[in-house]
Amino acid sequence: WVNRMAERNDLTIRVLKHTSGAPARFVPSEAEVDVNEALISSVDPKIAGSPEFIVKHRAIAGAVVHESAHARFSTRIDLPKIGKTYGGRHAGVFAMLEEGRCETQQWENLSGVEKLALQSMVLEIVLRDMQNDDGEIPAEMNIQSVVRLMGLIAARIDVGIVDITQPMGRRLADALIDALGTEYAPLYDIAVRFARHHVSWYSGGDNDLHDCVTEWIAVEDRLFPEPDEGEGGEGEGEGEGAGEGSGKSKSKSPK
What we know:
three-stranded mixed beta sheet
C-alpha cells in the first residue's frame, strides 16, 4: 500500500517506540516509514494497510499517507544541505512549506478513502493543538505561531485537504485572516506557489522553491522583525518533513 502510493518498491514500514517526537516520519536515507507504536497500538496488525484499516483508523492511516507523499515527492529535498547553504531559518521555513507541497502533489493520486484519511490526520493530529473546540486560534498563540499555522495549512486549504466549505475549516481560515490582516493574501500566495512546484529527479531544480522561502521570510520580517533563527522547523536528523507543529503548541505532527 505504502509503496504503491509512493510509486516505489523499496520502502519498509517500522513500528518504533521513538520517532523524533512525531507520530510518524519518513527516513529517506533508509527508505523507511516509521510509525510510533503509541499511535498504532490500537490497530490489529492483521488489518494494517488494508482498506478496513484506512476506514477504521482514518487519522492513523492519514499519517502514513502523508509520509508516503514525502517518500514520493520530497526525496530531492536535503534540509541539512539547505541549512548549511541558506541558514537555519530558511531551512525551517522550507520544511514547513514542504508539508503542504508534498500533500498537494500527492492529492490527485489518492483514492477517496485515502483523501478522507489525510484530511482526518490534518484535523486530528496536525491542527489538534492549534485551534480550540470552535475552530478558532487560541488566544495565547503568538504571531510567530499564527504565521507558522498559516504556512502549514495554506496549501492544504487551496487543494481542499482543509475544507473551508465545512464549518471548522471556515472558522480557522477566517481566524487566520483576522489575525494576519493584509499579510494573509501574500502568505497564502507564496505557500500555494511553493506547493504547486513539482520537483523531480528530472526537473530543473528547486530555485523557485527557495525564491518562495525568501519571499515568506520577507513577510515574516514585516510581522515580527527579529524571529528566532530556525523558526519554522523542529529539526530532524534525516531532514525530511521537519515542518509540522507550531511555536508554542505541543502538537506532535507527522514528519
